[in-house]
Amino acid sequence: MNSLTDRVGLGWRPDLAAGILEHLDAIDLLEVIADDFFSAPRGQVRALKTLAAQIPVVFHGVSLGLASSAPVETKRLDQMARLMDQVRPEFWSEHLAFVRAGGIEIGHLAAPPRNSSTVDAAAANLYRAQTAVGAKPLVENIATLIDPPASTLSESAWLNGILSASNCALLLDLHNVLANGLNHGYDPLEFVRQVPAERIAAIHIAGGKFISAPDGSERLLDDHLHDVPDPVFALLEETAARAPGPLTVILERDGDFPAMDSLLAQVAKARRALAKGRARRSQPVEAVA
Amino acid sequence: MSSSSTRLETFLARLYVDAHARANFKANPRAEAKKAGLSDYESATLENLDWIGLEMAARSFAKKRHLKRRPTWFAALKTRLSHLRFFRFVR
What we know:
Chain A is an alpha/beta fold. Chain A has helices at 17-22, 42-54, 74-87, 116-133, 155-166, 174-184, 188-194, 230-242, 260-281, 285-288, and strands at 7-11, 30-33, 57-60, 92-95, 98-101, 104-110, 138-140, 170-173, 200-205, 209-212, 218-221, 248-251. Chain B has a domain at 3-49.
């Protein structure tokens, strides 16, 4: 059992700064979007260093495109490396996505075709990232509204292939698992069970909303603008029951910010889900399955 | 990595950001895929594309690009105003 070392924190957003700083005693760590500081003035980086001296900080990247077939841009890796050197966060993470191709900026995280070619490409990019930055990133599964075409592997097989080829740890985004499961017809709980538990080091929890499709059906959009729904907490409990190592859980909220009490209540709920999952680890396996 | 994978990602990126490219592709998937230099296998799989997902993803990406273009002071102001009951009502 590693329940004593599990941690729950928040994504750092300027709008939440005052509330976070008032409640540092209720938050174990902060996750900072590294890309926001790549071109920031020196004063802002200094402020980030001051923050990191008060509370553990981890970095999260959103624009490298590590699962792209094209090599990740050296300039972006150098920016990450420089910021890592300046602030020295505990770890850094990035998405398994492509965000640009052939000079076209998509503007967000897109799922590449899931096949052996993109497994190899992602592993090569992760090696480049490790070499440039000096530390392996944790890799995160993404949400996708479209089932990526030309895929020959299931999402879990593709993810496991990259984890195996790169030897990276996993940042498991549970709302992304929920959204992809609902949108593309698989059981989110089963997905969590198919991921190598020993690789899970961090977890994202967030909320989204159902949006209407042109055919009248609905799909779950991972917009980070809503409270964490109960099925995500159930997935968190399951993950805690399976993962042998300590877990770092981050609550992501990108807008329509509620009162700080509401966010702290979700942090507390995450702690309870973790504790319930950890308690299950001490029970016979039959009770877990 | 294989140039085939790179071509496919470029083709998908164009579909995600360009409504005309989506319309052309929907009208004649095999020909558009061939024109982009995709393999027979890739062209065939693209014919069975998740069209609804494509439109929804394209809309979502467009919204993200729009938000990124918007000045940060505007986003900050909107958030601050949203805490006032009156602005929450009229939003």
